[in-house]
Amino acid sequence: MTAVADAPPALVRSRHFSRPLAFAAIAAIFLTFTSASAAPSPLYVVYQHLWGFSATTLTVVFAIYVVGLVGALLTLGALSDHLGRRPVLAAAIGLEVVALVLFLTAGDVAVLSVARFLQGIATGAAMTTLGAALVDLNPPHAPGRAGLVNGIIPSAGLAFGALGAGALVQYAPAPTHFVWALLLGAMVIAGLVVLRLPETSARRPGAAASLAPKLGIPARLRADVFALVPIIVASWAIGGLYLSLGPSVAAGVFGLGSHLIGGLVVTLLCGTGALTSYALRGLPTPRVLAIAASLLTVGAVISVAGVEADQVVIAAVGTVISGVGFGASALASFGTLALLADPHERGELLAVALVIAYIAFSVPAVIAGFAATSAGLQVTAVAYGVVVAVLGALALVAQRLRSRRAATA
């Protein structure tokens, strides 16, 4: 018999973290992945200056990440429901390490694109697995905690990663290398932590079949999921603009050349969103959704006014208001999904929601990149803001109609 088999049960159990500690560790790994995904945003301007590419190329590199991420969500989103959370998470961390090494050594757009694509695959595989693991480990005395963490971490990670990378690019040595070295170290630590995590999802057959691309929504959940689509699209569309072209707009429209400011642009939106998700956690979901739709619309209108008038303070106020809407949307949408799904459905349903979110995150941003090359950053930012305002208004109408139907039923 093996040493593990001969060991007392208490000793075997002691090799893994307790459930509360495992929950915290999963949340920390989740934050590391989302922070790493935002780190290139302040660096795009640096790479653009070093290698001389256009805004179109910039947003294409941004979109390559989303292609990898959405592809992973479509094919790998349910894999951890079959193989278990730990093996899928370990593989995602390994691929992220490869991507970070490529970032560290990148000398042209081609290598940067490959690194971003691999990072997208790793992040897509990790996000659904981590989100499902959080729900698996959710404390019985706090049934909404996993939904809250799943709602907060994506925006918090984007804020932390963009601001941290912006500060390192501005003040640390080797701006295109140091940030990647730090993230590489953090990801290696994450890999070691996975060795101590308990497995929360039993193996079951069908792993190979689960790799077939699909967007599976159980019939009983479709009405609830479809009702969330407008607000998810509105919020993540504005997130895509800020992460792809936000620092470029700050430099090109307002003349703010500091890389720290470039990261702060993203943080104003995503950091405000994370704080909002926490602050509104006790409110009923329909009310949070109404707040999200209303403030996304108002914030986009104010941001457009600031860009059109070349007034950075007005644009910043609009960004903060949009950030409140962004965070409220994340809280209500992902929190609702976390509570709706049964354990064996969680990975796949979160994958569906994230596919919708990241398509909205990337496709409009790529269109904006082409528009910025031909029409200019200011015109593009104004037009994009108007579209987001309209989407927010449509989301508000959709939620009111849903509330009326629910009241009638």
UniProtKB/TrEMBL annotation:
SUPFAM superfamilies in the record: MFS general substrate transporter
Record key words, sorted: Cell membrane, Membrane, Transmembrane, Transmembrane helix, Transport
Subcellular location: Cell membrane
Residue intervals of the Major facilitator superfamily (MFS) profile domain: 21-404
PROSITE patterns assigned: MFS, SUGAR_TRANSPORT_1
Main subcellular location of this protein, as a coarse class: membrane
Topology versus the membrane: Multi-pass membrane protein
Name recorded for this polypeptide: MFS transporter
Organism: Paractinoplanes deccanensis
